[in-house]
Design goal:
This protein is mainly β. It has three domains: 8-20 and 117-303, Beta-galactosidase, Chain A, domain 5; 311-702, 6 Propeller (Neuraminidase), CATH 2.120.10.10; 723-841, Immunoglobulin-like (Sandwich). Strands 3, 4, 5, 6, 7, 8, 13, 19 and 20 form a nine-stranded antiparallel beta sheet that branches. Strands 51, 52, 53, 54, 57, 58, 59, 60 and 61 form a nine-stranded antiparallel beta sheet that branches. A hairpin with a 4-residue loop joins strand 33 (437-445) and strand 34. The longest helix is centred in the first third of the chain and has 7 residues, at 33-39. Residues 1-20 form the signal peptide. Residues 28-43 have a biased composition (Low complexity).
């Protein structure tokens, strides 16, 4: 029947949890769900163990199943050449860098993401996400899943289906499947003589049945199947009600009452036997009923843990046309159900829209997002467990950034009994060409080896072939791709990198390749770094390539070396898929080597590279940092902005409370605004009860730097090490600028230079290390105070470099080194110290 306001109305309300016991992941015991959740998840760099999927394993997509031998559906990757595409020439209508810098920072949690209802179409029906629940509506019926806290080991769904309806002992002939219609926040499931209605609100769902029975003879009996792992029983405190209970909470089914249009009411007897719930409206009430009849049982959820929900594994993409950043991240519903949520902000921090990529009861994890500039489309990819065969597969959805809508899900990498798929990453394209594509990379696990795969995805969701490019007895994991192909007019290639372990010898290498904008390999695959025996790496990332200083396009790969208890971040400079140099980030930053520095992520502007990371503080808490550097001599990092603190995770790597997946960042350059120096960053913060997504906007506005840092010294009285930068080009005539930072405040110091190198500890009783050699000239006429901020600066004329016998002019081809000396104190006694040093090759 077509429902009208209603002849019979049965209502069930699913309300916010009635009581709670919050769990703090930082103090969760080793046996708690929160602790086991993180303990059971294999690390990216390690091999996938044969872990059993249990209620305490909330990320089964990371677990390798027992697989059968088999050959997958991938084809050999094609070979090609680099080709260029035009830049986007449409006028830019967004904010300038200065306007963005003056705007409030973007807040991914601005406006509670659970303060509105979300409707997401999936293959199995329409999913609704409210504040305290999620629900699915399809032709089979209604599934309600109460939110029982992120630390609940799994979902506890309750499936409702009207199985039969009788009037006066005669059956009403229900259709087998419902015809489902949605109007606003109401769903109507048409079962022929009975309409089943669900009115959804932010906090509750009202279930109703419409049937024309007023004035009829005999009892009206409605029988519902209520299928759940929750155990149903009579409610001890409320006669006529029922409680469905589980270890994490459950549902209370309240006493039903019937009302007619005149306001008369009566109790509706209800019985529960097994999974059958029966409601009976007495014949006497029906015979005298006037107008619509309302039967109203109330279902209320109760929970043991009401932690609001964890947001983690963030990624970001930028769209030039909308001048908008899109953040995607996991939104944990339970231990076996991670949703993928996205929020899009303009560059000024205004929330444009939020949409669920997945809000079903499937487990989607490891999201990644990239942008196609001309199409104004994002592709969000993730891995999930297939409902068909239990395999892990790669899925995605195209997002229209202008309209704020998402297309139907697409399966990019299917799983079978012979292979699983894990950890996807996606690269976009910023050009103004029409036929641009996304490129998705991921790892595919077989019985004895794991290999990378990639696939082209067009803006309309059309798929290219799955391609393979490596094989053999290796475990190759953590495959990543650059945000975009870089400047389409000068670079236009994706850079790909991944970890490779020889299963026979255990040898580990960093491996890579380059792929053109059409999806054909132009360089590689090949080993870029081979680690010494016994060493290992993980957390690989790769930047776009930049065409700088006359060199072939240069890009950077980062990785964590974790063979010792202290993880160190290394940066590998590459051209044409070959390594040209490797540096230690902490040494170049003149930072504390004894601290864990993990999960580095990379991005670029037109002239700068940027690296973000998490670093352990003395308290054990991890803070988020960003460092900006220029390319010097084609192979070195000339740091122009050192260790800018973005914020704190307020958590540690303690069991049950990992900070997340580093500090992702996306630059406006990567999305096609080639002159911008603005990037958006994000990280995970622990807010007492759960993990939240935070963000900061960064502008790489430091000057151009061509002097690169060297020499590792000792900390000064601030606890930090003094740091020196040089700004300006390498000409023999243009003024250079020296800037020393992280110095003790309100002391004095000066700069000096020389043509040689040295490494002398404690010269003249100093606490520092002298790094400049040869004839040393002091700028003693420029002695200055470090001021309240602990900084010194000096303009250097390269035609008058300080020397003991008077100033000299720098000559093309000469190396000159610079350093800063300053007064300090140690243990209450006066002493001195040095910064690190910079070296520059004049031209």
């Amino acid at each position: 029947m077509t429902s009208t306001p209603l002849a019979l109305f049965v209502s069930a309300l699913f309300i916010a949890p009635a009581f709670a016991q919050d769990l703090d992941p930082r103090t969760a015991s080793a046996g708690s769900p929160a602790a086991q959740a993180r303990a059971n998840a294999p690390e990216e760099g390690g091999d996938l163990g044969a872990l059993e999927v249990t209620e305490s394993t909330p990320r089964p997509g990371r677990v390798k199943r027992t697989l059968l031998p088999g050959v997958d559906d991938a084809l050999p990757a094609p070979r090609g050449e680099v080709f260029f595409q035009p830049r986007d020439t449409e006028p830019f209508t967004g904010r300038s860098d200065a306007e963005v810098a003056a705007a409030p920072p973007i807040d991914p949690l601005a406006v509670d993401p659970h303060s509105v209802l979300y409707f997401t179409e999936h293959a199995d029906g329409t999913w609704v996400r409210g504040r305290t629940y999620k629900a699915r509506v399809n032709e089979d019926g209604f599934r309600y899943i109460p939110f029982l806290g992120s630390s609940a080991p799994r979902n506890w769904p309750v499936d409702f289906r009207l199985e039969s309806a009788e009037l006066g002992g005669e059956p009403l002939m229900l259709t087998e499947n419902a015809t489902v219609e949605r109007s606003g926040d109401r769903f109507v499931l048409d079962r022929g003589p009975v309409d089943v209605l669900y009115d959804v609100t932010l906090e509750s769902v009202e279930q109703s049945f419409a049937v024309d029975v007023a004035g009829a003879a005999g009892d009206l009996v409605l029988e519902l199947s209520v299928v759940s792992d929750l155990e149903g029983s009579a409610h001890t405190a409320s006669p006529g009600a029922f409680r469905f209970s589980g270890p994490s909470g459950g549902l209370d089914y309240g006493t039903a009452v019937v009302f007619d249009g005149a306001g008369r009411s009566a109790s509706v007897p209800a019985t529960l036997e097994g999974d059958r719930l029966q409601l009976t409206v007495p014949a006497a009430f029906l015979a005298a009923a006037s107008g619509p009849i309302l039967v109203d049982p109330v279902l209320t959820s109760f929970a043991v843990d009401t932690v609001t929900g964890d947001q983690r594994d963030i990624d970001i993409a930028y769209d030039r046309t909308g001048d908008a950043f899109t953040y995607v991240y996991e939104d944990t519903f339970s231990g076996t159900d991670n949703d993928i949520y996205s929020r899009t902000f303009d560059s000024g921090g205004t929330l444009l829209f939020g949409v669920y990529i997945d809000s079903s009861d499937e487990d989607w994890i490891d999201p990644s997002v990239a942008n196609l500039n001309l199409a104004n489309k994002n592709l969000v990819v993730a891995s999930r467990i297939s409902a068909l065969n239990g395999s892990s597969e790669i899925v995605g959805r195209i997002m229209d950034v202008t309209a704020g809508t998402v297309d139907p899900e697409i399966v990019i990498g299917e799983g079978t009994a012979s292979w699983d798929n894990f950890r996807p990453d996606v690269g976009g394209n910023s050009s103004g060409a029409l036929a641009t594509v996304f490129l998705v990379v991921w790892e595919r696990a077989f019985t004895a080896d794991t290999q990378p795969r990639y696939r082209v995805v067009f803006a309309d969701g059309t798929l290219g072939n799955i391609q393979f490019f490596d094989n053999g007895n290796f475990t190759r994991t953590g495959v990543v791709i650059s945000e975009s192909t870089g400047d389409p007019a000068t670079v236009n290639v994706w850079n790909v990198a991944y970890r490779s372990r020889d299963n026979s010898t255990g040898a580990v290498s960093l491996r890579g390749l380059q792929i053109n904008a059409g999806g054909a390999i132009v360089n590689g695959p090949a080993n870029i770094v081979t680690l010494p025996s016994g060493q290992d790496l993980n957390e690989v990332d790769v930047s776009e390539a930049l065409s700088l200083d006359g060199y072939a396009p240069t890009y950077v790969i980062s990785y964590d070396e974790y063979s010792t208890p202290i993880e160190d971040t290394y940066l590998v400079f590459c051209r044409n898929n070959q390594r040209v140099n490797t540096i230690s980030l902490q040494e170049s930053e003149h930072a504390e080597l004894a601290r864990q520095q993990v999960e580095a992520r990379l991005s670029t502007t037109a002239e700068d590279f940027m690296v973000t990371y998490l670093e352990e503080q003395p308290s054990g808490i991890y803070d988020a940092f960003i460092t900006t550097f220029d390319l010097a001599e084609g192979a070195f990092a000339a740091i122009s902005e050192r260790r800018t603190r973005l914020g704190s995770t307020d958590t540690s790597y303690a069991l049950g409370a990992t900070p997340g997946e580093g500090v992702p960042l996306a630059s406006r350059f990567s999305g096609g605004f080639y002159t911008s120096r603005i990037s958006a960053t994000a990280w995970v913060n622990f807010n007492t009860n759960d993990l939240d997504a935070l963000s900061a906007t960064h502008i790489a506005d430091a000057g151009f730097s061509q002097g690169f840092q060297y020499c590792y010294g000792n900390p000064n009285s601030t606890g930090d090490r003094g740091f020196l930068s040089m700004f300006g080009d390498r000409s023999t005539t243009a003024t250079k600028f020296l800037e020393a930072s992280a110095l003790p405040p309100n002391t004095f110091g000066y700069f000096f230079c020389g043509p040689g190198f040295s490494n002398v500890a404690g010269p003249g009783g100093s606490q520092g290390v002298l790094c400049v050699g040869g004839a040393i000239g002091r700028y003693s006429n420029a002695v200055a105070s470090t001021g309240a901020n602990g900084r010194l600066a000096l303009a250097i004329n390269p035609t008058m470099l300080a020397q003991p016998n008077g100033p000299v002019a720098a000559m093309a081809g000469q190396l000159w080194q610079f350093q800063c000396w300053h007064r300090d104190s140690a243990g209450g006694s006066a002493t001195s110290n040095f910064t690190n040093a910079v070296t520059t090759l004049f031209r």
